[in-house]
Amino acid sequence: MFKRLRSDINCVFDRDPAARGFFEVLTTYPGLHAILFYRLAHKLWGWKLKWLARWISGFARFFTGIEIHPAAIIGDRFFIDHGMGVVIGETAEIGNDVTLYHGVTLGGTSWQKGKRHPTLGNGVVVGAGAKVLGPISIGDEVRIGSNAVVLKDVESNKTVVGIPGRVVNSKDKEIERKRKELAQKIGFDAYGMSKEMADPIEKSIYSLLDHIQAQDQKLEALAKELERIGGNSIDMTLPGLRDAVLEPDDPEQAKHLKSDKS
User: Fold this and answer.
1) Which end of the chain is less packed: N or C, by CB atoms within 10 Å?
2) What's this model's pTM, rounded to 2 decimal places?
């Protein structure tokens, strides 16, 4: 039990740069609270204490704004960011390392008994406000864009956007792979985004990633050539992205920021 609790908390640090400490996450993250209530309710459901399980689920919804049916099956390292308005239905199945953002619904499309909610594979990311409806299967590492409505099966490693949800494919798989590697290298996760999306801000982010990638490659080539002709070795490790407001580099700026807040 404690091992799973530690795993649930650690995944928050992996996916939320705003998380600062163990105690803060444990006491102030409604997504984590909802998971802990779910784990208890699911155990009671398995013991046939269904009324008590539903009562705990209802209390969790009141307390966190997140509704998870105790019969749903959820894997390890499940993370709900922000969480308000998330709904997970009775027959939903969720794999490991899945991330949901606020307003997500894993719902049904009929009143028939039996399997009527979606199954999500490992590593799936579902953007804010997205709806995944019906007894469909979402493959591993799928990205579902914000406000998308998904009604059909999706193969692994795809990105889905729009209403109704449609798969968007990069025209160049090598470019897509390099973008993903660069995004991970600099600590950026452009979840549920695709170059084919209409949002100009998201297109700009992709253009910036392409530009940074080209610069990165040229700098690495320059550093290798410099070292080859006898120059000093250059460390090409890039720092992760940080929130400049929360973690300013300048101590004086940090001091002024604290005084402004107070």
Assistant:
1) C
2) 0.65
